[in-house]
Design brief:
With 260 residues, the chain is of the alpha+beta class. The chain has 2 domains: 2-148, Beta Polymerase, domain 2 (2-Layer Sandwich); 152-256, no CATH class. It has 12 helices and 9 strands.
Length: 260
């Protein structure tokens, strides 16, 4: 089903944005491998020549909401940016329009300030991933559009994500068995893979890196995270105390690299 939705994205965004469209660029797990139809988002960036009118923004969101209603398994997450916002990079990065499951209900309710200029620190990481491993769905080549992002901003972007996962695990149990926090475990691994080996990885690749490079006592946790990512409901409970040890190891690595 994924190739069908990609063709629909190209067709509908081209029809709505018309001559203002520069390109559509796939990033994330679908571009890097490891895409799971049960749980993965379809991540892409849209670059336009000039700012979008309110009418065009609403047309894009109307189509996206209708697509989500008809095919809820296709979880779209995208940002639309002008070429100037991309090339004249600032952090956090301004954008024209954003859609994700977290924003879906706001759009459905009409509870959204269309005039507000929003900024997203995650776009630094999205730009780096797109430049390194992205796929052109339509338009100009990636290297003609996306600049090199200063490493400090990429670090800050991925560490903000790390801190979100850290907080969830810290609030969990200290002992006994618990459910594996799939995103947290695989995200720790891919952050460490970048910090130690400068690798840009998917969550699956990050987990595979962890199985090779992290102490063996954590392999059971990583295995269960990879299992659950592959098939929801397949993982066995994990040791909560060992999970927090893995978290401490990750935090120590950040401190050691003076990035915490």
């Amino acid at each position: 089903m994924t190739p069908v939705i990609l063709e629909e994205i190209k067709k509908e965004f081209s029809a709505i944005i018309k001559d203002n469209l520069i390109g559509i660029y796939l990033h994330g797990s679908l571009a890097m491998g490891g895409f799971n139809p049960e749980s993965s988002d379809i991540d892409f960036l849209v670059v336009v020549k000039e700012k979008l009118s309110l009418k065009i923004k609403k047309k894009l969101i109307d189509w996206t909401l209708q697509s989500a209603k008809q095919s809820p398994e296709n979880r779209l997450e995208y940002s639309v940016l002008t070429l100037g916002q991309v090339r004249n990079f600032q952090y956090p990065t301004p954008f024209e329009l954003h859609y994700s499951n977290d924003w879906q209900e706001k759009y459905r309710r009409g509870d959204f300030d269309w005039a507000k200029q929003n900024f997203d620190p995650d776009l630094a990481a999205h730009f780096v991933i797109t430049k390194k491993r992205g796929v052109v769905l339509s338009g100009k080549p990636i290297n003609e559009i996306f600049p090199a992002i200063p490493e400090k901003y990429y670090f800050d972007s991925i560490i903000k994500d790390f801190r979100w996962s850290e907080d969830k695990i810290i609030k969990g149990p200290d002992s006994g068995m618990c459910r594996v926090p799939v995103y947290g475990v695989l995200n720790f691994c891919r952050v460490l893979a970048y910090l130690q080996d400068k690798l840009i990885t998917s969550k699956v690749e990050g987990g595979q890196w962890g199985l090779i490079n992290l102490p063996e006592k954590y392999h059971k946790i990583i295995h269960e995270a990879l299992k659950e990512y592959s098939k929801v409901g397949s993982a066995q409970p994990i040791d909560a105390a060992l999970l927090k040890q893995l978290l401490k190891l990750s935090i120590y690595s950040l401190q050691f690299l003076d990035l915490a």
